[in-house]
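Before the break, one more example. Copy the sequence into your notebook; we will annotate it together after we see the structure.
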Amino acid sequence: MALGGRYLQHDGGTAADTVQNVGSRSWFGRKLTGVLSYIRKHPQEFVLQVLTFTLLCQWIYVGSKKVFTYAEFRASMIKQPFANGYGIMLSYILPAVQLATGTLFIFEGTKRLGFWFTIILMFVFSSYVILALRDTWGSIPCDCVLEFPISWKAHLWVNGLISIACIAGLLLDRKIRISHQRKLMTK
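Here is what the structure looks like once it is written out:
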């Protein structure tokens, strides 16, 4: 219905007023509204993206920290309870593997591989922590190789939580892929 050159909407406001109100919201407000709308419509995809982004940041941070403090990291690897040659070799391999694992989370096609690599790395790191806690080498190796200032037992729990998050990510990814395939088949 026209009213003085304006069209009334069902709520009694005019279309021009509605457009003006949308334009007056801040950029941040519009973006926040869009994100909240996406979360409401796609909660599983959002959780998967949060897990993916968190693991991406974790591996890039951990690997980069070793690269940027390489001399200190190498010295701590040599102090570990295995032959110096292994420590030196691991000081090259470990940051590269961690950065590569983080990079896998960037691309949709390699994200699942990133989850699997993370589970494998958490198993290896947890095995090492368990051996240290069981006093396999006569003493617990220095805490200098731990990325976060927490105890060895707490580190074991963190590794477990990361592994659980990876399993949840793999399950969510599978569920989302199956859902998308079903939607494509019904079209």
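The longest helix spans residues 152-186. Residues 15-20 have pLDDT under 50 and may be disordered. Try to locate both features in your own notes.
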